[in-house]
Design a protein that fits this description.
This protein is α/β, with parallel strands linked by helices. It has one domain: 3-Layer(aba) Sandwich (Cobalt-precorrin-4 Transmethylase, domain 1), CATH 3.40.1010.10. The chain is built from two helices and four strands. The longest helix is centred in the first third of the chain and has 9 residues. It starts with a strand and ends with a strand. About 20% of the residues are buried.
Length: about 70
């Protein structure tokens, strides 16, 4: 399963409860360059963190999250 989190700001306190729950359950966290470490730290400690410019095409088993930077 792939879920996308579109950040509204770069402040980790602005994540919704639902987004925080998704990050806590994710097996893999794909993220655009520039996503702050404080947001990535909300993911499970053993989740893979992968910098990527776009969501992954390969749908691996488990839960994958793609974090997109805020639109300017």
């Amino acid at each position: 399963t792939l879920a996308t989190i579109g950040l509204r700001t770069l402040d980790p306190h602005d994540l919704t409860i639902g987004e925080a729950i998704l990050l806590g359950r994710a097996d893999r966290v794909f993220h655009e360059p520039g996503v702050p470490p404080a947001i990535l730290d909300r993911a499970r400690a053993d989740a893979d963190r992968i910098e990527a410019g776009a969501p992954p095409a390969d749908q691996s088993e488990g839960l994958s999250i793609f974090i997109a930077l805020p639109e300017e």
